[in-house]
Amino acid sequence: MKRRVTLKHIAKELDVSVSTVSKALKNSEEISRETKEKIQAFAKLYNYRPNNIALSLKNKKTKNIGVIIPDIVHHFFTTVFRGIEHYAGERGYNVMICVSDESFEKEVLNMELLANGSIDGIIMSLSAETQERNDFNHLQEIMDQGIPMVLFDRVSDEVACDKVILNDIEIAFEAVETMINSGKRKIALVTTESYFNVSSDRAQGYEKALISNDLQLEKNLVLTLPYESEDEIPIWEFFESNEIDAVLCVNEIFAIKCMDVVQRQGKKVPEDISFIGFTNGILSRYSTPKLSTVAQHGERMGETAAKLLIDRIENDLEGNYKTEVISATLIHRDSTIN
Amino acid sequence: MKRRVTLKHIAKELDVSVSTVSKALKNSEEISRETKEKIQAFAKLYNYRPNNIALSLKNKKTKNIGVIIPDIVHHFFTTVFRGIEHYAGERGYNVMICVSDESFEKEVLNMELLANGSIDGIIMSLSAETQERNDFNHLQEIMDQGIPMVLFDRVSDEVACDKVILNDIEIAFEAVETMINSGKRKIALVTTESYFNVSSDRAQGYEKALISNDLQLEKNLVLTLPYESEDEIPIWEFFESNEIDAVLCVNEIFAIKCMDVVQRQGKKVPEDISFIGFTNGILSRYSTPKLSTVAQHGERMGETAAKLLIDRIENDLEGNYKTEVISATLIHRDSTIN
User: What is the ipTM of this complex?
Assistant: First the structure.
């Protein structure tokens, strides 16, 4: 039997990216005519069939679910996975995961790998690069083949499918308002690039809370950090050069790093400066002081996503997509004034 | 097309466990004759073929690797996975993971799922229950079908395959000796059940270090904790009722929990009591005080495992199994006296 030719083989053979191949095969305007002709000819020659096995999937259930997460060394995503696994197990489904490593290309490859006939549906959270590019063709393709999909946490309005999200705007609003009510006035936001839908929602909640309490939005009180970085200089300088008495951080690790820096600068937490983070991970429970944080209820999010997916698979539902909103909880520990 | 009957279907239909079905089909002595006949008849009726697709796999490479880890919410396993993924990616392989959730039955199901024709080889770490049962038939079966396997960290002498392990005995010896050299004499071990090969190796290193320094082994200085538990009472009582001036913990989370308890009991770390943990995770870097710990170099372990597996896949190697030993490093932070 001849080996099935994949997007990746074609990309490698012609020395172009996987997404170029994918777009060329769909005759996208973004790709030059010359490149398209070359790729299409090659695909024809080698009898490329887009996920051909998947096309026959609809009537042949595998009782397997595929999950794609952006990062495996990340408490939130692993707890969501746990929720998916527990719920799916109860309904007799096995689960396998692929990790996109925040890369668009890997996400495309993961989907191709999973959609090779061994799964009935996919649950995923978008990679950073996918959110940055705003390119969701690969998701649409999978759904066009009749494989249902549920997006969680990092989602996009441009993809029509079931979704599970957190009430990020509301809970960020509540977190900031709590700090204002305890007497804080100079409130900073430590966040990631705004192409993450969750970061932009949390920023929106932060801004709304300031405005509704007649506080001024100050651009220099927003610190944008790279998603993964060991460099603490920007943090050090941010807290040295600004007068800040409270901080909302869009994740747990930013909060822990910032608390560590300000305490070395001689400030007291929470008296001089309060902190609230997102992700109620183990770090929050054992930091000094223990971190007040937003519990995102990852397991519940995972269970909800798995329920949406399995219901759709088993009832062959089409359209009528739902977005379930998980209500986050603010947990007060020792990094805020009660 | 009729759906393929799996071990799980048979188990469910006949209301027995997956491992009973697996053993019955291999005519195991452990299963009663009556049960075996029933299961075998059922399997025949429904044309059960053990991983039938896998049998034809040998000449048809998929360029996919399957990974089975016991737990996804665990820093060490996720860093090993990262290492596997990075190395495999460089050699053009995709990786998918299944999680056994420390369950023997899930591990068997994971293997069946992965061996359905979509992977060229498996990298895994044994579940707690598999180590407790000491039952490795499912691993042997996969290898008998020509699917190569590499075990890492939680391994067994009873399985003949490539392995990657840590020098657990030596590094535990070194950790304890370091504390003895700093003047400590009443050294405790906080560990998990001894059916984990890694825990038993670390206990062996601990004992050796005491003996070689003419210190007495005291049974009451060894605390065995359940693998996952929020209950701190046993920890509280252990440190209240014993005179202890140093502690080796077999993982990071035990160390963090114990440090938290003893500090609430009014003891000073490291002056009154020193701590060394295993797993150089993010918790260790942000605990108070920062935890001295054994870096297991999970990424290197993962890369090594992936190299062993891919070399075996690509060169169709048989036999001549290797065990690669990764040398751990002791990292001194603030929970030990330097």
Answer: 0.76
